[in-house]
Amino acid sequence: MKHFLEFDSKLVRNQPNLPERELFHELVDQIWDRNWLTNDGPLVRQLERELEVVTGAAHAVAVANGTLGLMVAAKALSIDGDFICPSFTFVATAHALYWQGGDPIFCDVSPRSFNLDPDGVHVERDRFTTGIVATQVFGTPLDPELREVADEYHVPILVDSAHALGCGLPILGDAEVLSLHATKVAHACEGGAILTNSPDIAEKCRLFRQFGFQGQANVVSEGINAKLSELHAAMGLLSLRDLEAQISHNREEYLEYMRGLQGISQVNLCLTGRNYHYVPIMVDDRDDLAAYLLSKGVLARRYFYPGCHRCEPYRSFNPHLSLPHTESLCDRILILPNHSAGNVSSIIKEFYHA
């Protein structure tokens, strides 16, 4: 099996969105001139301010990646025991909390939004539950009823918002975590940010991301190293500057897919959030179609497969757990490249009309 870095460069696949090289070099020169590479530098602070403007959050705390963001935010929210979690999510959503001693209680998702079903939370919640973890899949909004459920049971909501930057969604959770990984609509190569409207939670997150230091020499709490470097922040700032242009491109590609796939009854083009960064389709013969696309030079990806509850170590804990909607999605969802829509649509037509 090829390493992912050895993919054929000719494959049609999702590519990182890169800013102009000269602009990045200008910011790198500033970093060199200041000789300030990490530890809450000026570019990190600027990135946080701009993320607050884009998302509407009162506070943004930049972190080294989304997974560490989930770990830090969960610590700040005291989600340290049983937690409600969708299985239809990237495995890091569960791993981040399990790594710190949390125990996921996997719930099914809505077949319409693909997000956590509030009715399932009611069923699964018990007296040991310390929080609700939800994912905004493909940037679609969470059911507002989740907030009512959390308030009823007096537990916090932590939201994995890795897909949601640029979607204009309100801050529903007590803390929400963005991913700024290279695959996202705006990125810092590797990076993330914790969003919250609570100054207390933001302060805790800032403490936890830097070993518990308050100032230069005063350790006031436990902590971890989750800091974002100035070099990553430079990429993040430039990528964020191009966010609306990227969303406009994504939207045109999504609309082209709508036109190109029209009339193919076997293909259901799924709804997505305002950033249109993901092009998910549902098909019954997903693996056969993916193999055909690959034979034609197009890399389409299964997504969230096979479901967290069917991955280790969680599968061994509850091998008979059945989540029908999650399993149906995991076995049918395919993500198409968010470019070359006309060409990819034509290949899909070939597959079904051959």
Task: Explain what this protein looks like in three dimensions.
This protein has a seven-stranded mixed beta sheet, with helices on both faces. It has a four-stranded antiparallel beta sheet with strand order 10-11-13-12. α1 packs antiparallel against α8, α2 packs parallel to α8 and α3 packs across α7. The radius of gyration is 21 Å and the shape is globular. It is an alpha/beta fold and 354 residues long. It has helices spanning 21-34, 42-55, 66-76, 91-98, 118-124, 145-153, 199-208, 230-241, 243-261, 286-295, 314-317, 324-332, 341-353, and strands at 59-63, 82-86, 103-107, 129-135, 157-160, 175-179, 192-196, 213-214, 218-219, 268-269, 279-282, 301-302, 333-336. It has two domains: 21-241, Type I PLP-dependent aspartate aminotransferase-like (Major domain) (Aspartate Aminotransferase, domain 2); 243-353, Aspartate Aminotransferase, domain 1 (Alpha-Beta Complex), CATH 3.90.1150.10.
Describe the SSE topology.
Layout lengths: L20 H14 L7 H14 L3 E5 L2 H11 L5 E5 L4 H8 L4 E5 L10 H7 L4 E7 L9 H9 L3 E4 L14 E5 L12 E5 L2 H10 L4 E2 L3 E2 L10 H12 L1 H19 L6 E2 L9 E4 L3 H10 L5 E2 L11 H4 L6 H9 E4 L4 H13 L1
Parallel strand pairs: 2-3, 2-4, 4-5, 5-6
Antiparallel strand pairs: 1-7, 6-7, 8-9, 10-11, 11-13, 12-13
Helix pairs in contact: 1-8, 2-8, 3-4, 3-7, 9-13
